[in-house]
């Protein structure tokens, strides 16, 4: 699909999301079902397989891959933390895709056997073609204390409103990611479609999560810290590989700027720049896939009773992923800086990749100093802060 995604990338940026035709191609290919349980029409593949798909899609268009990833990925959370009744209802006919906005910018008021949810959530990446929206809202604490608790409330399409505030250059990059804001006004969510948002640092009990008990697959032990970051990092790795493709094309078709002017492929400088960028992009790729393979091994070892799978383990895996993101960003930055002024023109693929990874760099999840501190705290026996 790489050629198709590249051909549609500019239109996707203007639109704010990948097209209906691309969405249908993803659906036919089964990408949305990658992490979905077989019991409910999915493939139940591992996280390493899912992120291989995302990297390859991002090699076509990073913004499209970001939106698809954050729409398809949260089947993992539904399958891990929600009850059998809820999963049967949410996954329905087998097609499910839904962004999850972790920031609790809404509120959930208890009403009957459920909650009435209202609020506005920004940056809901992947909402354009979603079947549901996973909204995190603050609710009264069941223990009666004054401190509210965050709840993840599953809201079906048609009961939320997507605000037209994304795409068309509204942001520096990732315009194709469908990261619109979403508004919900007094929507009733039954209690079985609302779960406490403790996913990042929950205690993994001997019996595992509700999803592990239901499906018997270690994939659904639900450790989430590394997963959330992998959703952001995998598109950056694909962007670095896409930039590498474009940089090579430029080397094969352009001359150097200074005399004696020769094909860039014959220039020692361009050979070095390309070699450095290639090593960084490939190292980032190895780190992402290898880290998610390690995640799967940890989950299977826990299920076999031979090892634990702690929040500390998860936070350490997240740290490795952020090193992959740094390598990917440095690769794209090097290629953009040395690609010549034509690479900075509007419509240039290399410019788009640079803008997309630069937009990622502003995400709170990309601030590796913050996450490194959090990982250090956890390893030293203190609570996770981020």
Describe the structure.
- This protein is α+β, with helices and mostly antiparallel strands and 386 residues long.
- The protein folds into three domains: 78 residues, Orthogonal Bundle (Butyryl-Coa Dehydrogenase, subunit A, domain 1), CATH 1.10.540; 110 residues, Butyryl-CoA Dehydrogenase, subunit A, domain 2, CATH 2.40.110; 157 residues, Butyryl-CoA Dehydrogenase, subunit A, domain 3 (Up-down Bundle).
- It has twelve helices and seven strands.
- It has a seven-stranded mixed beta sheet with strand order 5-6-2-1-3-4-7, with no helix packed on it.
- Strand 1 and strand 2 form a beta hairpin.
- The two termini are 36 Å apart.
- The mean pLDDT is 97.
Show the helix and strand layout.
Layout: H1 2-15, H2 20-29, H3 47-60, H4 62-72, H5 75-81, H6 84-91, E1 100-110, E2 114-121, E3 132-139, E4 149-156, E5 161-162, E6 182-190, E7 194-196, H7 210-215, H8 225-253, H9 268-304, H10 311-338, H11 349-361, H12 368-379
Parallel strand pairs: 1-3
Antiparallel strand pairs: 1-2, 2-6, 3-4, 4-7, 5-6
Describe this protein with a few key phrases.
single chain; alpha+beta; Butyryl-CoA Dehydrogenase, subunit A, domain 2; Butyryl-CoA Dehydrogenase, subunit A, domain 3; 3 domains; seven-stranded mixed sheet
Give a count of the beta strands, DSSP E runs of length 2 or more. Answer: 7
CATH fold title of the largest domain: Butyryl-CoA Dehydrogenase, subunit A, domain 3
Determine the CATH superfamily of the largest domain. Butyryl-CoA Dehydrogenase, subunit A, domain 3
H/E element order: HHHHHHEEEEEEEHHHHHH
> Measured on Cα atoms, how large is the radius of gyration?
21 Å
Largest sheet: 7 strands, mixed
